[in-house]
Protein: Kanamycin biosynthetic protein
Amino acid sequence: MGFMDKVKGLMGQHGDKVQQGLDKAAQMADSKTKGKYTNQIKSGTQKAKDAAGKLADDGKKDDGQDGKGSGPTS
Structure:
């Protein structure tokens, strides 16, 4: 298993936490720059979220999960 396979697997499991972390980082950056770069921060954050989401989807596919609730139910 290569490095990217591990990253994809982790993103498949924890993608929601990564998305939350990106939001927090964006808020902090916007706060520190006093809103001067809001549009650039939003754009960069969205691109990072898109990339993270793609890795998460790939990780779910590699694990045999399709993200449609095919696992066991509680």
About this structure: The radius of gyration is 15 Å. The chain has a mean pLDDT of 84. Residues 3-62 form one domain.
